[in-house]
Amino acid sequence: MSQDTVIEAKGLTKTYGRAVAVDHIAFSVGRGEIFGLLGPNGAGKTTTILMLLGLTDISGGEVRVLGFDPAREPLSVKRRVGYLPDTVGFYDQLTAADNLRYTARLIGFKKAVRETRIADALDRVGLSEFAEKRVGTFSRGMHQRLGLAEILMKGAQIAILDEPTSGLDPHATAELLAIIRGFKAEGVSVLLSSHLLERVQSVCDRVALFSGGHIALMGSVADLGREVLGGGYVVDIEADGAGLAERLALIPGVSGVEKTGIGKLRLHADRDVRPEAAAEVVAMQGRLKFLGVQEPSLDAIYTRYFETKPAEGMTMKEGTRHAA
Amino acid sequence: MQREGSAFQGLGVVMLKELSDHLTSIRFFVLELLVVLIALVTVYAAAQQIKDTTAEDPFLFLRLFTTSREPLPAFLFWLSLLVPVMAIGLAFDSVNSEYNRRTLSRILSQPIYRDALLFGKFLGGLVTLTIALIVLWLMVIGLGLLFIGIPPGGEEIARIFVFLVVTIVYAGVWLSLSLLFSTLFRSAATAALVALGFWLFIYLLWPILAEVLAQAIVPLDPRYMALGLQTPGTVELQQILARLSPSTLFAEAVVALLDPTTRSLGPIYLSQMQGAVLGAPLPLSESMLIAWPQTVGMIATAILLFVIGYVIFQRQEVRA
After folding, report:
1. Do B111 and A78 touch (CB under 8 A)?
2. ipTM over 0.95
3. CA–CA separation, A192 vs A202, rounded Å?
4. Is there a domain that residue B3 lies in?
5. Scanning A161, B71, B112, B203, which has its CA 20 to 30 A from the CA of B220?
6. Model confidence at A47, in pLDDT bands (50, 70, 90)?
7. Residue-wise pLDDT tens digits, B63-90
8. Strand, coil or helix: what is B97?
9. Options 3.30.1340.30, 3.20.20.140, 3.40.1080.10, 3.30.70.100; which CATH number does A233-294 get?
10. CB-CB: which of A73, A92, A324 is closest to B4?
11. Is the pLDDT of residue A230 over 50?
């Protein structure tokens, strides 16, 4: 395990009797990377997370989190990793600050450190004014933010977030994703699981698409787009200049040019060709009015992939799942 | 497989939180109020009865706990009835509520083991019950002083203290049972109902069943019956079966402690009576020896129930 790798799983497997929840998966997460475990409910994402935290036994394979074995050294792992579970729960009768105080005591922070960390963390997630309010009065979005505050207070090197945007409205989702980007800016690695592909696509550096306990696809969204859709990027240009379409078609990586309106063109490319496209417009002494790129959609990648390989797209039957 | 660190890291934190939750809960306040009111009435009635009927007794204070006045049963009866209810009331939702509130996985993702969480919950409940019982004991002693007007002697205080310890052990048995059901059933209502049902069975039905079963296994001997005596084999078996119930163990241990003249908790044979001065009180140490097997039986039951709950909890998945 290299110094830049914070999580490394090899052949990781979890079985419940005959049912296989996670089947020989392998992945790694780099330092400061946001890695998405994406896929439908029941695909094995949460079970994988629980194995990483030492909260469920590992049936096979091996995993290292910051160099520690979660099965043998769970306390070392849990001291350094923050976890936001799916539909996180707090003690409703306690205030937000008291909930964090309890966690801080469990971690073993001294009182002086504790209070400073709690105040800072609540401030970071915008809950300072609700610090002394009972959590029972909080909305779902506030629960999620309090969960993130707990991770911040802990000073975790890795944040594991299980379905963080599930059940949130668009505004709360945007706020949450901004906080997650903040983690990355501070060098915290993030492992994020979600079944809402389009919601988390924008924050993930790399993703692993889960299905039926397997990792079906893994890589950056652009790479996956190229691999599955055969050309990941769609670049929209609004500019004037005769013969522009023909010149743009000659840019390496562009597989097609489509006219979408007066002075509007759409390029299909296997990479981000905006710099070259802008340079062509300038070279033709044209006026560039708009230049934008559409990344391939994870939903589209996922759907296309399993259209071509339906057997792998089958998720586990509910009846075969253990109540993990 | 060797795990790192102590299994009890965070135990104190969990215990203090549980203690704080219990002491500030309405549930505990109502249960404690009920016990205090009953203690007030029964001790007052017992004091009146003692005043009316007892001229002289070296253990007058102990009688406060055991004397009844129609129609009220003695304080001891209420205690054996209500301590299980208090213990069940404190622990029936200890573990399942963590699942239902979805706090379990978050808490267990902190650097603690499950051991600390479960044992902390047990200790939190036990300390709460201990505080409640100490308050109750002090109140009874205070009321006794007020109503009887005579201070308790040194041995009486010692016996009352040991009685308190045995009562805490008895509470521990029911706390372990309640915690076990709380681990076993995800629904708090189911756990409470099953625990209360089990308590009713143990308290009311088991003594009757023990008698019926004993007579079925070892039928009554007509020769003893003709003499108006109980068949020794049947009585012994009935006693063994009855002692499977913690309520029986508690009642027997307490009789030995609060009635210093008690020399045996089983059938007494003539050979045991040779040289004995009838009605002479035993020293506390000998009364404790008589109550010891029952007390150990209760401690063993509490540990056994806790261990079963512990194993179940360790094997459960943390996801709700």
Report:
1. yes
2. no
3. 12
4. no
5. B203
6. very high
7. 888 777 777 788 888 888 889 999 999 9
8. helix
9. 3.30.70.100
10. A73
11. yes
* Chain B environment of A323 (Cβ under 8 Å): 317, 319
Percent of chain B past pLDDT 90, that is, above it, reads 52
Cis peptide before A252 (omega within 30 of 0): no
Q: Considering only alpha carbons, which residue of chain A is nearest residue B17? A: A102
Q: If you search the block for the tokens 């709690």, which residue do you land on?
A: A118
For A228, which DSSP code?
Answer: I
Using the Cβ of B21 and the Cβ atoms of chain A, whether some distance falls under 8 Å is answered with yes
- A102 contacts in B (CB within 8 Å)? 13, 17
Q: Give contacts of B 143-202 with A, CB under 8 A.
A: none
d(CA B38, CA A18): 56
When the candidates are 3.40.50.720, 3.40.190.10, 3.40.50.300, 3.10.129.10, the CATH number that belongs to A5-87+156-224 is 3.40.50.300
* Buried-exposed string B87-122: b where 16+ CB fall within 10 A, e elsewhere: bbbbbbbbbbbbbeebbbbbbbbbbbbbbbbbbbbb
Total domains in the fold of chain B: 1
- Kind and range of the H or E run holding A8: strand A5-16
Residue in A53, A102, A322 nearest the CB of B317? A322
Collect all residues of chain A within an 8 Å Cβ-Cβ radius of residue B117: none
Interface residue B315 vs chain A (CB under 8 A): no
pLDDT tens track for A154-189? 999 999 999 988 888 888 888 889 999 999 988 999
Partner residue opposite A72 with nearest CB, options B4, B113, B317:
B4
The whole-angstrom distance between B99's CA and the closest CA on chain A is: 9
Given CB atoms, is B111 within the 8 Å cutoff of chain A?
A: yes
Q: Which of A20, A37, A17, A14 is nearest to A217 (CA)?
A: A37
pLDDT class of B320 with cuts at 50, 70, 90: low
Structural tokens at position B162: 């040991």
Contact B1 A71 (CB under 8 A): yes
The DSSP symbol for A134 reads B
**Highest mean pLDDT (candidates A191-200, B191-200, B257-266):** B191-200
Q: For A82-96, A120-134, A217-231, which range has the lowest pLDDT when averaged over its residues?
A: A217-231
Interface of A with B (CB under 8 A): 46, 50, 53, 55-56, 71-76, 78-79, 81-85, 87-93, 102-103, 105-108, 147, 150, 322-324
What is the pLDDT at residue A314?
A: 43
Contact list, B99 vs chain A (CB under 8 Å): none
CA distance B153 to B150: 9
| Distance separating alpha carbons of residues A142 and B188, to the nearest angstrom | 27
Which chain B residues have a beta carbon less than 8 Å from that of A105? 10, 13
Look at B105 and A50 and tell me if their CB atoms are within 8 Å: yes
User: CA B44, B50, B55: angle at the middle one, nearest 5?
Assistant: 155
| Mean of pLDDT over chain B | 89
Domain assignment present for residue B320? The answer is no
pLDDT score of A3:
64
